[in-house]
Amino acid sequence: MALGMATAPYELRFGAGRICLDLLATAHPVERLCSAAALHAWITGSGLVPPGTVAARADTSWLAAFRELRGDVDQLVRATLSPEPRPFDLPLAHVNAVARAAPPAPCARRGQDGTLVRELDGPPECAALLGAIARDAVELLTDPVARAGMRQCAGDNCPIVYLDSSRGRRRRWCSSEVCGNRERVARHRRRAAVSRA
How far apart are CA 20 and CA 132, in angstroms? Predict the structure, then answer.
């Protein structure tokens, strides 16, 4: 989903190409993980758990843990994108430790209409969900092909990092509808100002 989903009172964006990168987008332009309800909406919207799954005991400690992992993954991603070497030993150690937790186990169940639907074998725990995100980050950052597809949005002041899987790898913005549209509007205004002058 390119633009993501809107959920009152917070808007969550998905479409960075990886769950770990979608987590990074929750910090821009303002903090999106501001409540247990926002965290639950992100967990479901990101596809980390099937729709309708209720997170067990999600509370403010979950928010702190998700934000801490987000900060560590962000440091690793920025170090990977930087042309200059950056220290990242502590974030790397934390991401590796978090990745050891077993992610929630999916299973197939027969739905009401007879088709198979994905469910979890039990309520997801915080450590298991964080483990799935940390493993996604480890897989992304250790895969040379995927790592080469990471881009930072070319939009003005947009720090969002996404995985460019477009044909020819020419995607420039985290979202064509958001940053891409802002760039097109700015370009139009510049042309209009030049023609008026």
Answer: 9
Closest among 168, 97, 161, 164 to 131, alpha carbons compared = 97
CA angle, residues 22, 56, 60, in degrees to nearest 5: 65
- Has this prediction a pTM greater than 0.85? no
- pLDDT tens digit sequence for 67-84: 999 999 999 999 999 988
d(CA 74, CA 85): 15
Domains of the chain, first to last: 5-196 (1.10.3300.10)
**Which residues are 6's β-sheet partners?**
11
pLDDT digits (tens, 9 = 90+) for 16-31: 999 999 999 999 888 9
CA 69 – CA 20 distance, rounded (Å)? 9
